[in-house]
# Entry
Amino acid sequence: MTKILVTPVAGRRVRHPDGRLLGAEGATVERSPYWLRRERDGDVTVKKPAAPKVQASTTAKAARSDKKET
# Structure
């Protein structure tokens, strides 16, 4: 299922479906009708979560250093 980043609108207290409060920093959750209703009601903003940062492999680093020497 698709992940989304939900953050509460300023001044709103929003609960997860299990009853926990959503923190001010937001959370990455599964896209579901529950969160889409919270967005429609103006309780949260929905964004795509940030892509995980991928570290360059040692091979790519070596290739870059070879180019610099020539």
